[in-house]
Write a structure and sequence with these properties.
By secondary structure, the protein is mainly alpha-helical. Helix content is 54%, strand content 1%. Strands 1-2 form a two-stranded antiparallel ribbon. About 4% of the residues have low confidence.
């Protein structure tokens, strides 16, 4: 195999490209399902990251030498950036380095970062090795490999065994892989997960069941949500995601119970029925749950400028000039103003039909092409709802894939 090229470079500039690639991938992963980000916003981050990756590609061996330590470091997204650099070379020797770092990481962080990098790399040359790793007795390694394979829609034998692993992170990855591979068809696959001690595991299992088109999912969620002795908050919240208007009374009732108020408000936002707006407006006056009610109201209507005005600094004492704290970051976000929200609603309610399911002021009709218009959180949830009812048979979106390669574009 020919030696790597070492063209003339400015090493300080090359380090900046690597740091920016690291930073942008951390940012990207953090906003994947944000309520106020769109595919267009995500694509902008990806384009910026690709520019920095291009510069590292051109640097040849210099970039490989610079990024190699990150494969064994302590930072997740530095390992992601390094993986992208190594995999982009297409060299088998460097691919083996990535796999070895993935197999025996110095700490969990680099393995997680390599996993993300491999999700977004071409894995044809290492598919067999990843399948072997997915069968490894080390559950953490097997789950990470299964996640990569499932992201690329490569069937993973015996991934079910990982759902009962001791580590909840392993269980989350296992259910995520099962959903991507449409492997959660039987209600018995979900029932144990609904009783899992970890909330993230419960959410991951519910999403996997929806992606798989599990029969009876809505009924399972209702029974778990209505269990008065131990109501399941994730099942309650997922009824909003599934979007059946019949669940509106159940969610309204849950808003009035202190133990389920927060999750029920989020579920009403996901449900997207304007019949919930009056309850949300009323709840905005609640000091504890007002921000959650406002978030649900915004999710349905796309309303802006409904927050209370900040008082001038002079009226509240102002920031301490000697504190070293910037005024911009001193206070939390202002609370919602129920009156402003109500005035906005009264002025615009005629634009909203009662029959539709509304997300960010957009009426969701079920058309795949509409997904690109929705904020990322809503896009994910309406897609899950459609899949749960057997829709989108010909469209398999990788919800965590790159925006520019989305199946809906």
């Amino acid at each position: 195999m020919p030696e790597l090229d070492y063209p003339p470079v400015l090493h300080d500039v090359l380090e900046e490209h690597f740091e920016e690639l690291d930073f942008l991938w951390e940012l990207r992963e953090g906003v994947l399902f944000a309520p106020d980000w769109t595919l267009e916003d995500l694509a902008e981050i990806e384009e910026r990251a690709e520019t920095h990756l291009d510069a590292l590609r051109l640097a040849g061996g210099h970039a490989v030498d610079l990024t190699r330590p990150a494969l064994a470091g302590e930072e997740v997204f530095a390992a992601t950036a390094a993986t992208l650099v190594f995999m982009e070379t297409g060299r088998s020797d460097l691919t083996r380095e990535v796999l070895e770092a993935f197999r025996k990481p110095a700490a969990p962080e680099p393995r997680d970062g390599i996993r993300i990098g491999l999700r977004h790399s071409t894995i044809d040359a290492i598919r067999k090795e990843l399948l072997k790793l997915a069968a490894d007795r080390d559950a953490a390694l097997a789950a990470a490999a299964a996640d990569v394979l499932a992201f690329h829609r490569v069937p993973v034998p015996d991934v079910d065994r990982l759902r009962t692993a001791e580590d909840p992170t392993v269980r989350v990855l296992a259910y995520g892989a099962a959903g991507k591979l449409r492997g959660m068809k039987a209600p018995d696959d979900l029932r144990p997960a609904l009783g899992d001690q970890d909330s993230e595991v419960r959410w991951a299992a519910l999403r996997a069941a929806a992606l798989s088109g599990m029969p009876g999912l809505e009924d399972l969620c209702r029974r778990a949500a209505m269990d008065r002795s131990a109501p399941n908050p994730e099942a309650l919240g997922f009824l909003g995601v599934l979007g059946n208007p019949v669940d509106l009374p159940l969610l309204r009732d849950a808003v009035r119970r202190p133990e389920t108020t927060a999750v029920a408000l989020a579920a009403l936002g996901a449900l997207g029925k304007i019949e919930a707006v009056e309850l949300l407006l009323d709840t905005m006056a609640d000091k504890e749950h007002g921000p959650e009610a406002a978030a649900a109201f915004r999710r349905i209507t796309g309303a802006e400028d409904i927050d209370a005005e900040r008082p001038p600094p002079s009226l509240v004492g102002g920031p301490d000039p000697d504190s070293g704290v910037d005024e911009e970051f001193e206070d939390d976000a202002p609370p919602p103003d129920p009156q402003r929200a109500r005035e906005w609603w009264e002025a615009t309610r005629g634009q909203f039909s009662e029959d539709g399911r509304w997300q960010a002021g957009i009426e969701w009709t079920g058309a795949v092409a509409m997904l690109d218009r929705l904020p990322l959180q809503a896009r994910r949830d309406v897609y899950l709802a459609a899949c749960s009812r057997g829709g989108f048979e010909q469209t398999d979106l990788e919800l965590e894939g790159k925006a520019w390669s989305s199946g809906s574009r």
